[in-house]
Amino acid sequence: HQNVKPFPKNFFWGASTSAYQVEGAWNEDGKGPSVIDVGHHPEGVTDFKVASDHYHRYKEDVALLAEMGLKAYRFSIAWTRIYPNGTGEANPKGIEFYNSLINELKEKGIEPIVTMYHFDLPYALQQKGGWSNRETVDAFENYAKTLFTHFGDRVKYWLTINEQNMMILHGTAIGTVDLHLENPEKELYQQNHHMLLAQAKAIKLCHEMLPDAKIGPAPNICYIYPASSRPEDVLAAQNFNSIRNWLYLDAACFGRYNSVAWSYFEEKGYTPAIQEGDMEILASAKPDFIAFNYYTSMTVAHSNKDGNDRHSTGDQQIVIGDSGVYKGHTNEHLRKTEFGWEIDPVGFRITLREIYDRYHLPLLVTENGLGAFDKLEEGDVINDDYRIDFLREHIKQAQLAITDGVDLIGYCPWSAIDLVSTHQGISKRYGFIYVNRDEFDLKDLRRIRKKSFYWYQKIIQTNGENL
Ligand code: BG6
């Protein structure tokens, strides 16, 4: 493009976190345990009990976010602070905490963008079958109602479920499903169906209760590349695009399962049980926008059922492949992060264009960022130039996508402040603000502005004019 369009005037320059990764205070003020609290931790990394201690330091944290100039802050509410057992009596102290946090944000002119559920299902619900149990749909609807009732006067942007597609595709890794089941995938797609119903009900309820509010899904979306122009590779990429991405957005936006995903279910024996009226529920809810997380692209090749399909691509932690459907492939055109994730800013533009083209809804980026081992240098300095480069390249591509005509309303990189990574501890840092602790030594947990903090502050001040 010769003439790049400017970022819109009210663009949400933001940043993101999630409750269990940042709050700590895992069992305080009546909070119940979630699947995260009782989950298995890989050896050598911290658990989520203290995290960044944001629960006790939220005022100081919000002041820093305001200093950075954030227009929006995307965070999640811990279901178990509101309902310690998932259902039953609400916990006033939990409601009080989020009231205070939201008020603090509003006072500073920061728009709260709230994720209702970010991986931390109440353990009490998990014990009753979790998402395999249809009652969890009702529990979620009831939880949603409580959130809208208490916070709906100030929260105008809601996200239903964070990365539902990752919970399903990597359910055996995340622990939502019993590995010993004969057909865990079938169970996962049943859970998926229930989550889709829960999401649709929450969207409908939001529109009824809060006519001015906006609500949308928040999957992890990245466009899938074929390993080559060989037609069989292109078919494999289509397969994976349908199963990994469009399945979730088609269900959210059009209220139906896409045909490629459905025939895949039939082929593999994963078809979920659908009760009478379910499809009407899905079709009755329309999101107002699409939020999505983007870290890396992925590449796949044709799978000839040789039993050697599983291979990591994009994100080295995630091994993908499905016999006869697609096979993971390393993209030799991309550099990798210290943690082995492929870096693909152009893929970000491609993904933005593709989602917009399919659904024609406003888009909001709710995660994008670089996990790295930051070094705290003398004089409280963190020179995270690599993070600045990563974000700059992605923001440039976002601007090109806007120039292409994509209706992008905001960009909330991961993460506002250092927090505990989902599988790799606190040493894998993402924040603009450093939290002074190690895996097992909590030190003083003090907050230190990184070089990227000052850089992002300027970007926001100038509305992205001088990238
Ligand atoms: C997303 C999640 O999958 O990626 C976050 O929504 C997560 O919760 C983020 O932290 C980065 O992944 P990781 O594994 O590096 O923490």
TrEMBL record:
User: Which GO cellular component terms are attached?
Assistant: cytosol
Gene Ontology terms: biological process: carbohydrate catabolic process
Query: Quick check: keyword Hydrolase in the entry?
Result: yes
Q: Does the keyword Calcium apply?
A: no
Which range is the signal sequence, renumbered to this chain? none
Pfam families xref list: Glyco_hydro_1
Catalytic site: 367 (nucleophile)
Keywords of the record, alphabetical order, are: Glycosidase, Hydrolase
UniProt-listed Gene3D superfamilies: Glycosidases (3.20.20.80)
Enzyme Commission number(s) of this protein: 3.2.1.86
Q: Show the GO MF annotations.
A: 6-phospho-beta-glucosidase activity
Question: What PROSITE patterns does this protein's entry cite?
Answer: GLYCOSYL_HYDROL_F1_1, GLYCOSYL_HYDROL_F1_2
Q: Which family does it belong to?
A: Belongs to the glycosyl hydrolase 1 family.
The molecule here is called 6-phospho-beta-glucosidase
Q: Which organism is it from?
A: Anoxybacteroides tepidamans
Traced from the root, the source organism's taxonomic lineage reads: Bacteria, Bacillati, Bacillota, Bacilli, Bacillales
